Amino acid sequence: MADETKDTEKESGTSEAKEVSDDFAVREHTSPSGLKYTTTTGRLVLRREETKDGKADGFKPKAEIFVVAYTQQDAEPGRPVTFAFNGGPGSASVWLHLGLLGPRLVESGDVGTMTPAPFGLVDNPDSLLESSDLVLIDPVNTGFSRVVEGEKADEFHAFVQDRDLVAEVVRLWTTRNNRWLSPKYLVGESYGTLRAVAVAGRLFDAYGMAVNGLGLISTVLNMSTLRFFPGSDLPYALHLPTYAAIAHYHGRHGDRELSEVVREAEEYAARDFGYALTQGTRLTSEEYDEAVARLHAITTLDEGFIRRTNLRWAYHEFAAELLRSEGLSVGRIDGRFAARPENLQSSDSFDDPSIRAITGPYSAAMNHYVRAELGYENDLPYEILTARVQPWSYRTFEGAPVDVSGVLERLLVHNPTLRVHVDYGYHDGATPHFAAEYVWAHMNLDDAARARFTHHYHEAGHMMYLNPVARDAQLRALRAFVTEGQTGQG
Questions:
Q1: For residues 75 and 323, what is the distance between their CA atoms, to the nearest angstrom?
Q2: Is 96 in a helix, a strand, or coil?
Q3: What is the Cα–Cα distance from 32 to 14, expressed in whole angstroms?
Q4: Do residues 50 and 32 make contact, with C-beta atoms less than 8 angstroms apart?
C-alpha cells in the first residue's frame, strides 16, 4: 500500500455568524504500479445565494458534503476526472469506491466464499485511478454528509434538490481544481444511474458543462419498468429473464447454458407473455394453461404458485418461493445469494441475504480506511445504507413515471460526442437487465447515437464487482471508456 508522507488540513469559506468551513485531510500515496497520487478527504461546504424581500441576503451554507478525491501528482494536462456515486436513495458511495473504482478494495469474498470478520482491504491494481482522477460523492445523510445546523435535511431528500446538490459539487470541485478543460465522466450505480443522467442534464443546462461520458452500472432510468403495482403489467414481463437466470444459478435448469435460458425467457417475455398479461380475463382457459406451463418451465416455480398469483408476482415473492422447498430465500440485490429466512412460512422476503452478507465487510473497511489511510477523523456514524433519507420525494413528476430517459435523449442530441457505458448483472433482481434494454429500445435515437453506447453483461448481481471475474472485466472496459473513446458492443 502507499506510504503516507503528508497529512495537512486546509480550510476555506466565507465569514458566517456561525462559521462553517471545509475540513479536508490531504495525504500523498504511491500505488503498486508507481502512480503517485494525492487524496483529499473531507466535507465540502455547499453554499447558496439567497434573497430576502427581493434583496440579496448572502451566500449561505446549506450542507457539508463528504467527498474523497484522488488526483494524480504532476499529471499531464487533459487527464480525465470521474465523479462517482451510488444510489438507494440512501446509499453512500462506498460500494463503488471500495468495491470497484478506488485504489483499495474491500476483501469481502464472493457468494459461497465470503471473508469472515474482521474483513480487510487489498490493493486494486486495475483501479480506474490508473486512467482517471476520481471524486467519490456522498449525498445528504449518506456517509458523513449532513445539512448545516439550522437547515432541514428533508429539503435534499428529493429528486430535483438532490440532482442540483450533486451537480453543484461537480461544478465547485471542477472550478476549484481548474478542471473545466479536462474530460469529465459521471459514474452511477442503481438510483445513481438515474441521478447521473439528471446531473448531466443539470450541468449542461445550468452551467454549460458538457460531460464526455456516463457510466451506468445496474441501470434504472424509468422506474415504471421496475415498480410492481396494480394496473401495470410491464414489470412482471421485464423481470422474467432475471428469474430464469437466478433459477439457473441455483441449479434449476440442469446443464443448460445460461445464455440459452435467458434468451428463451427474453423471447417469451417480449411476445407471448406480454400478450397474456394484457389480455387478463380475456385469455381462454387453454391459453392460460399454456402460459402457466411456460412460466413454470422458464422460472421453475411451482405451477400452483403461478396460478395463485394469476401469472403476476413481485420480486420479493419470487425470492421467498424459488428455494422454499430447501428452506431458503434468495437475494434481491444479488440472486446468487441464498439463506434461511426468518419465517419459513412467509409468502414474501424483504430480508435480503445478499445485503446482509456484504454490509459488514464494506462498513468495516470504510470506517478503517477513511481514518487509518486517508487521515480523516469524524465522530459521526458513516451512513453506508440508510433509511434517514426516506420518504424520498418525486413530486417533480406529479404522478407521471419517474423517468429521465428523455433527458438522456436530449443530451445525446445536444452533445454529439457523449458516450454511454452500461453494465448489467444477469442475477440482479433490483434493476433487471431486460428492463434497461426496454428503455433503450424506446428511446428516440438515431443509429449514430445508439452507436455511442457500449453494453457489458456479467454473470453476477447488482454489485457485479463482487465477482472477481466481473470486476476485472468492468475495470478493463471502464478504463478503455475514459481513455480510448471506444464504441460498439461490449
A1: 53
A2: helix
A3: 40
A4: no
Q: Report whether 180 contacts 89 (CB < 8 A).
A: no
163 SS3 class = helix
Q: Are 467 and 460 in contact (CB under 8 A)?
A: yes
| Alpha-carbon span 331 to 350, nearest angstrom | 9
pLDDT for the residue 18? 64
- DSSP letter string, 111-146: TTSPPPTT--EEE-TT-GGGTSEEEEEE-TTSBT-E
pTM of the model as a whole: 0.92
For residue 2, count other CB atoms closer than 10 A to its CB: 18
429-479 pLDDT per residue, tens: 999 999 999 999 999 999 999 999 999 999 999 999 999 999 999 999 999
Cα distance between residue 136 and residue 483, in whole Å: 19
pLDDT of residue 58: 79
Q: Which three cell numbers stand for residue 191?
A: 438510483
User: How far from 261 is each of 23, 90, 240, 266, 267, CA to CA, in Å?
Assistant: 52, 34, 11, 9, 10
Distance CA 205, CA 432 (A): 30
Query: What is the pLDDT at residue 93?
Result: 98
Name the nearest CA neighbour of 430 among 218, 236, 142: 218
> Which pLDDT does position 1 carry in this prediction?
46
**One-letter amino acid for residue 135 of the chain:** V
- The DSSP bridge pattern shows strands 146-147 and 23-30 to be unpaired
Check: CB of residue 265 under 8 Å from CB of residue 244: yes
Residue-level pLDDT at 134: 98
Among residues 6, 135, 138, which one has the least CA distance to residue 79?
135
* 3-state SS, residue 260: helix
Helix (H, G, I), strand (E, B) or coil at 240: helix
What would the grid cell of residue 237 be?
Answer: 414481463
Point out the residues of the chain with pLDDT beneath 70.
1-18, 57, 347-350, 485-490
Phi-psi region of 480 (alpha: psi -120 to 50; beta: other; left: phi over 0): alpha
Q: Identify the pLDDT of residue 488.
A: 37
Helix segments in 87-222, DSSP class H: 94-96, 159-176, 191-207
Provide the residue type at 163 as one letter: R
Of 82, 97, 184, 188, which is closest to residue 143 (Cα–Cα)?
A: 97
| Per-residue confidence (pLDDT) for residue 16, from 0 to 100 | 43
Cell of 332: 434481491
What is the predicted pLDDT for the residue at 356? 93
Count Cβ atoms below 10 Å from residue 344 Cβ, excluding itself.
11
Question: Which positions ≥6 away from 38 have C-beta within 8 Å?
Answer: 26, 27, 28, 29, 70, 71, 73
Which among 116, 130, 118, 161 is positioned nearest to 30, based on CA atoms? Answer: 130
